[in-house]
Structure to design on (223 residues):
């Protein structure tokens, strides 16, 4: 079983729709939960991070963590064409390296 | 403030050669991590350096090595290049080791022919 599972997509949505992304993980030692956005030919950019179960909101982005189910989600409201990118979930145990999901490619069509 | 700078951006090498990639972290960041990104394997951790010492190492062969200088700049070296080493190599810096607040550079695209 992979340590992190993430659907590769592509996920295609019309402009203005809600984008829903998720990852499952198996390592109970993961304490930090992150979402990165990566545009073509660029490095990943940190969007959201959290270390507890529950929801965290930042503008149009909401990150959700359910530690009991080992499941994290990212929701993007009012999606824009500029949100078209690959979204990577990432996990970290204390003082350790980042473990990434394979990424979900998102296309927001005008 | 300046971000993480990686040089060169693109590189083409021949099998069997060696290559050195460079990373300048954000000013004040003392930890530098290296990742390899390929379509098949995604982002995989290579190693992390803090205060010139390797703190963590991923599951890569010994042909992959790195170092960090006193000014926190880091280099990674790949010797005896193989076709499978073709990838985007990403450097990330953070204030301290194990810090979740990583900032990535744009990467060096290495093609081995």
């Amino acid at each position: 079983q992979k340590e992190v599972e993430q659907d590769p997509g592509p996920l295609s949505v019309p402009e203005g729709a809600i984008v829903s992304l998720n990852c499952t993980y198996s390592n109970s030692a993961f304490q930090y939960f992150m979402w990165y956005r990566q545009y073509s030919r660029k490095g990943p950019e940190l969007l959201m991070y959290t270390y507890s179960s529950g929801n965290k909101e930042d503008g149009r982005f909401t990150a959700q963590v359910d530690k009991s189910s080992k499941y994290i989600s990212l929701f993007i409201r009012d999606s824009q064409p500029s949100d078209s990118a690959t979204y990577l979930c990432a996990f970290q145990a204390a003082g350790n390296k980042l473990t990434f999901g394979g990424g979900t490619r998102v296309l927001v069509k005008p | 403030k300046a971000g993480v700078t990686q040089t060169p951006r693109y590189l083409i090498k021949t099998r069997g050669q060696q290559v050195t990639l460079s990373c300048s972290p954000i000013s004040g960041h003392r930890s530098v991590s290296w990742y390899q990104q390929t379509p098949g394997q995604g982002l995989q951790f290579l190693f992390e350096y803090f205060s010139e010492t390797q703190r963590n190492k991923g599951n890569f062969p010994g042909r992959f090595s790195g170092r960090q200088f006193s000014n926190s700049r880091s280099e990674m070296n790949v010797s005896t290049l193989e076709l499978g080493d073709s990838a985007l190599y990403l450097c990330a810096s953070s204030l301290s080791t194990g810090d979740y607040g990583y900032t990535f550079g744009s990467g060096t695209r290495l093609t081995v022919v």
Q: What stands out?
A: The radius of gyration of chain B is 13 Å. Chain B is about 0% helix and 55% strand.
